[in-house]
């Protein structure tokens, strides 16, 4: 894998200020991102996602650790690196009296890219902003303003794009447009790192997923591998007659009785289909032991279940 971004031991401590205690926002975070990958960084509020992005974009000065981007050390060449990075920040912030088209063209110049009206037009059209090119930003709706932020981040053709909570508080239409845009960018080889609270978004878009909590990266894995390794299948057999105890061969199959013996629960598998096979085997064994069941519910754990489990139980749950 051609590594675009390599973060080692990244630590950021915000000092105590005005009665507020010191905060360790990043705690020896390691992360390597390959060229062209779409990586989702998941974490609860205050986990350190924005701080990590800020450090790579030169907005936050790390306390310790190294950031290598495009093979260069951030400490020695941050301007050169910053030119190749696009950032869509969480918060809206621009000159509201500026016109949309000019603001995008200006962003290009800001990063040292030569004027290119054709490129500006393409970016505006891809975000359905072309008709608004002469409108002042202050006259746009919140969703449209967010589109302008994305256009500004794309104006200088970044090779590495950060999207910090790109779809927080946006409507379904913009969310779909965003996903489509990310797909288009994937085709051009742009590397994308997005932070999100929407697990569904990570499930939909990302090749790999990282989970961060309290400044520590708990787990980084291929999305499918993470589901296979940490996913579980659950089944609930509703029994016709309550049972006092299970025959030992059935109990040996991750099965337990609940609700006064009237429901048999199974939890096992590994997210790769093994659980469903074991449930079929369990059903066969129940028939063999003349245990009648009247209903069966099967559910697979989602990325969300895995995420919640990891954040609640820490890195130990990943092993
Ligand atoms: N400038 C700052 N000064 C002091 N503390 C800060 C500063 N910026 C962030 N923090 C603290 O650092 C921790 C990590 O914050 P950060 O914004 O990086 O988390 P996040 O994962 O992006 O959260 P969210 O999902 O809520 O945006 C939090 O405890 C936050 O309060």
TrEMBL record:
InterPro entries assigned to the protein according to its UniProt record, in alphabetical order: AAA+_ATPase, ABC_transporter-like_ATP-bd, ABC_transporter-like_CS, ABC_transporter_ATP-binding, P-loop_NTPase
CDD domains in UniProt: ABC_DR_subfamily_A
SUPFAM superfamilies on file: P-loop containing nucleoside triphosphate hydrolases
UniProt keyword list: ATP-binding, Nucleotide-binding, Transport
ABC transporter domain sequence ranges: 5-239
SMART domains: AAA
GO molecular function: ATP binding
Record Gene3D superfamilies: P-loop containing nucleotide triphosphate hydrolases
Protein name: ABC transporter ATP-binding protein
């Amino acid at each position: 894998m051609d590594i675009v971004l390599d973060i080692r031991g990244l630590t950021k401590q915000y000092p105590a200020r005005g009665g507020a205690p010191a905060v360790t926002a990043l705690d020896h975070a390691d992360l390597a991102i390959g060229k062209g990958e779409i990586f989702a960084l998941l974490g609860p509020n205050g986990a350190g996602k924005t701080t990590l992005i800020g450090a790579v974009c030169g907005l936050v000065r790390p306390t310790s650790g190294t950031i290598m981007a495009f093979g260069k050390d951030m400490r020695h060449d941050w301007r050169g690196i910053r030119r190749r990075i696009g950032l869509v920040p969480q918060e809206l912030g621009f000159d509201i009296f500026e016109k949309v088209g000019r603001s995008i063209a200006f962003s290009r110049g800001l990063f040292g890219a030569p004027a290119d009206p054709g490129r500006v037009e393409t970016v505006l059209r891809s975000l359905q902003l072309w008709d608004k090119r002469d409108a002042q930003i202050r006259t746009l709706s919140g969703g449209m303003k967010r589109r302008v932020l994305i256009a500004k981040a794309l104006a200088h053709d970044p090779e590495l794009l950060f999207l910090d909570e790109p779809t927080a508080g946006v409507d379904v239409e913009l969310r779909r447009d965003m996903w489509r845009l990310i797909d288009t960018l994937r085709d051009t080889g742009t590397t994308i790192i997005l932070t999100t609270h929407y697990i569904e978004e990570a499930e939909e878009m990302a090749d790999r997923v990282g989970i961060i909590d309290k400044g520590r990266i708990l787990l980084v894995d291929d999305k499918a591998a993470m589901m296979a390794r940490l996913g579980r299948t659950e089944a609930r057999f509703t029994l016709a007659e309550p049972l006092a105890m299970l025959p030992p061969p059935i109990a040996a199959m991750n099965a337990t009785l609940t609700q006064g013996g009237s429901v048999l629960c199974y939890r096992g598998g590994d997210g790769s289909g093994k659980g469903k096979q074991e449930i079929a085997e369990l059903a066969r064994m129940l028939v063999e032991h003349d245990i009648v069941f009247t209903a069966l519910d099967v559910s697979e754990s989602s990325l969300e279940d895995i995420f919640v489990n990891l954040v609640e139980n820490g890195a130990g749950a990943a092993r």
